[in-house]
Write a sequence for this structure.
């Protein structure tokens, strides 16, 4: 499998961590978003949306969208609950991540860390919704080690990607102690450096 990804992107790291956790062989092709390497004719032929992560499976078929990719890689593994309700709860988090978390927490981080914006200059709506997303995680993790079924699933991998670097977007993780403890647990389970 070939993974086209940018190492600064949480969406791309979700794919790398899932492949590493499951012991899947892959070739990582660093694709620099800041240099518009996702917008070249060659890349657009792989993914017309012009975005990483994009993978080319061993049989040559392409697949994009981080959460779709990790679902495909983890099919049949312990990262997806066998129980239908728990699996649906995991999917609930994955859809929420893309609509209510990533657009605020990741966008704030991109603007501050990579576009040089001061956190005070961020659009208030981004900050408010980012904080609301972190607060929702904080509440969900009260008394829980992981988001679903009491163990590591794709919900944790997807949501930890941008949550663990939220401070780069001006958010204060110290305000969310359950989230901080969960980040450490997920990083340990995935064997990724804190
Ligand atoms: N919803 C997509 C988002 C993908 C995305 O926004 N990728 C960014 C990097 S994090 C990108 O490729 N941006 C480059 C561009 O749009 O040209 C996913 O989860 O994979």
């Amino acid at each position: 499998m070939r993974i086209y990804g940018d190492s600064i992107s949480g969406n791309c790291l979700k794919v790398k961590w899932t492949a590493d956790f499951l012991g899947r062989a892959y070739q990582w092709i660093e694709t620099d978003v800041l240099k518009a390497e996702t917008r070249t004719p060659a890349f657009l032929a792989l993914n017309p949306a012009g975005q990483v992560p994009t993978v080319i499976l061993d049989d040559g078929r392409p697949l994009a969208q981080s959460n779709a990719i990790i679902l495909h890689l983890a099919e049949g593994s312990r990262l997806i609950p066998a129980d239908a309700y728990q699996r649906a709860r995991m999917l609930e988090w994955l859809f929420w991540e893309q609509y209510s978390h990533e657009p605020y927490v990741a966008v704030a981080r991109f603007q501050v860390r990579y576009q040089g914006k001061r956190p005070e200059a961020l659009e208030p709506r981004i900050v408010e919704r980012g904080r609301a997303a972190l607060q929702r995680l904080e509440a969900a993790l009260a008394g829980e080690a992981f988001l679903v079924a009491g163990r590591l699933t794709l919900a944790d991998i997807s949501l930890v990607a941008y949550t663990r670097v939220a401070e780069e977007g001006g958010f204060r993780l110290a305000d969310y102690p359950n989230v901080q403890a969960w980040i450490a647990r997920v990083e340990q389970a995935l064997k990724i450096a804190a």
About this structure: The helical segments are 10-21, 41-46, 66-73, 84-114, 124-140, 154-163, 177-190. The mean pLDDT is 98. Residues 84-114 form the longest helix (31 residues).
